[in-house]
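Service request form, structural biology core

Requester: graduate student, group of Dr. S.
Request type: structure prediction, single chain
Budget code: on file
Notes: please return the result as structure tokens.

Sequence provided:
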Amino acid sequence: MNEKFFDLKKEKQDRMINGAMKVFALNGFARASTDEMVKEAGVSKGLWFHYFDNKIGLYTFVVDYAIKYVNMEMSAGFSAESNDFFDTTLAIEKVKMSVRRSYPYVPLFLTSLDKETNEEALEAVGEYIALYRERIRSIYEQVDRSEFAPFVDERIFDMTVAFTMKGILEEEYAKETFDERSYMGRVKVFLNQMKEMSKVQ
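Core staff response, request fulfilled:
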């Protein structure tokens, strides 16, 4: 990446970042079209490739940028109401929604990283993905699961929550317009149901 990218006006930087993030999030690395990114960002293809030599360089930059931004927001603004698993999960989603106001496709883009299969892309961004997963893991290390019933298998439970949350997110993004209130409302209903199902009776 050409470091002069950061000399651009912030508004143009964000248009280019958001354009790339949207196309990568919706299509994955291999199927992502730089022509679509240029169209989304409203800039010339020549300008685009003045700052990013190739698609893998662009992908690496966008992944790094998204994860650093979210991790920074987690550090600065994360505040679960308690160390309860469900309050913590909801607090993480609130941070993602806060980031989404500046970078609308960050939540879906982060989810897309779990489904990426292109070996070149994964090799290029593996260290960044590891940083994000480590940040999430460190948050969940602090949660109190003492109210979980003895029959609850934590690994299966966590996978169930993660997969369902991703499904809800993808359904909301599939709509013509993403509705934050609808998404958070569905998340709260789901988490409340899981809390009732998992607690000691």
